[in-house]
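User: Hi! Is it possible to get a structure for several chains at once, not just one? Here's what I have:
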Amino acid sequence: GESVGLHLPTLSVQEGDNSIINCAYSNSASDYFIWYKQESGKGPQFIIDIRSNMDKRQGQRVTVLLNKTVKHLSLQIAATQPGDSAVYFCAEKPNTGNQFYFGTGTSLTVIP
Amino acid sequence: KAGVTQTPRYLIKTRGQQVTLSCSPISGHRSVSWYQQTPGQGLQFLFEYFSETQRNKGNFPGRFSGRQFSNSRSEMNVSTLELGDSALYLCASSFYSSSYEQYFGPGTRLTVT
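Assistant: Yes, the chains can be modeled jointly so their relative placement is included. Here is the combined structure:
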């Protein structure tokens, strides 16, 4: 099976600082990646996605960086707010098959 | 538009029992996927149903089964429950089969004692 891992299980940041959450993936054939946010008691919520033909994609306060050479994905959150506190996890989709493979998640805590 | 709903939200069962979970997708969505989420394994894909047909299946034992009705609502059944089946079960709906754009429900928290 696929292996999608996160470098840090927990991350604490001060409100207003930038956050960086990392993800390593194992399948070099994966061509699509998604970052999800999961708040307590809720299902995962789509944040941003990126295809393998891109290195960077920006959204509102979030940026995803993809380094295919080292099979690494990161999510950057600018000016982190208390409402950003949640578990974040990445998902990858290999270019064969229809299944997504998910990481276990990093818990982000924003300190007011 | 209402989101994905799952019932019940919490469930406690005993080993050996069976359980049925329900998922109502977003109106108009015909695909429903089920996932098991545990702290150690993250989200693991169970199966996907589209237009009442199972389209994809993950690597779970036959004790896990599902079905989809003509109104796209889906049920998941787990028979002969084991302690390791304790998890958050999430369903996600999408318009197309195997769509990248999935919308998740809040999940059903199953505890097996």
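The two ends of chain A are 40 Å apart (CA to CA). Chain A touches chain B at residues 1, 4, 32, 34, 41-46, 49, 89, 91, 93, 98-105 (CB under 8 Å).

User: Great, thank you!
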